[in-house]
Specification:
The structure is a single chain. It contains eleven helices and twelve strands. By secondary structure, the protein is α/β, with parallel strands linked by helices. The N and C termini lie far apart (67 Å). The longest helix has 28 residues. It folds into three domains: 84 residues, Arc Repressor Mutant, subunit A (Orthogonal Bundle), CATH 1.10.10.10; 99 residues, 3-Layer(aba) Sandwich (D-Maltodextrin-Binding Protein, domain 2), CATH 3.40.190; 104 residues, D-Maltodextrin-Binding Protein, domain 2, CATH 3.40.190.290. 42% of the residues lie in helices and 22% in strands. The strands form three sheets. Strands 3, 4, 5, 6, 7, 10, 11 and 12 form an eight-stranded mixed beta sheet that branches. Strands 1-2 form a two-stranded antiparallel ribbon.
Amino acid sequence: MKRINPDLNSLRAFVMLANAGGFRPAAEALGLSGPALSRQIARLEERLGTRLFDRDTRNLHLTPSGQELLTIAGRLLHEAGKAVEEFEAFLAARRGRVSVAGLPSITAGLLPPLIAQFVAGRPNLDVRVLDALSDRVAAAVLDGSADFGLTAGASDAAGRLAFRRLLDDPFYAVAAPGGPLDDLDEVGWQDLVSLPFIAMAQGTSVRALTDAALVQIGAAFEPRFEVSHLATAGALVAEGLGVSALPGLTLPVIGGASLVVRPLKAPEVTRRIGLVFLAGRTLSPAAQDLIDLVFRLVRGPLGRDGA
């Protein structure tokens, strides 16, 4: 059996004609001439293989086939209209889902107020946040489980990832109140690592930069404690078990307001925080809107880094 495939414009013209009851008012509503509308209906009847209207010089009546098609066409046009609205909402970044992978210190210390502003007024837009270490952030972007990532620098051997610098995140010395940092305005790395030290685990961006700083000054490094999670590091510091060196974005995560925090010098160490995304790949409108918001608020005049 030959498949029937009427196009939406023809169905729209048919419904308009059936409701208007005459070619002239229907043609005017559609912005067509009377003969053009007549030809369109004739082509639709030919394609469907049935007469839709009985007409004479004065009257126009739906045939039984026309009555049936009017009901079906109404449903089709309604669903098509909803589908177009959904796609327009997607294009306007009001619908869909954005997935972001990021270092825990960034997703907890930087993202929440940005996401709150982003989703305001967008009830049909969902945001998924994947907290992960640097390698996993890059992997999530590469395998498509994240639209983009927030991390401390990123590279891949095949050059598939692009990186856009967002801000520089300096390191600070942290200790419990009543500890060795109370009377100091700033701290050198050499002095800090001579104290019981709470280090982040190997494989974290914080540990990599800590190791690099100590190589620069030629200091031996034997941490007293080593942890995998920032919250654990903060809890050990708060307990007075040792000191640590952590980037500024981590301080809200570890409860830095209740700790003694001092600038860490000699050498000055910063994490270069930025966005990673697949090079040459077009992002969804919503993902691009979120990226634009991040850069506008973080790097704008009121952000952390006006560069």
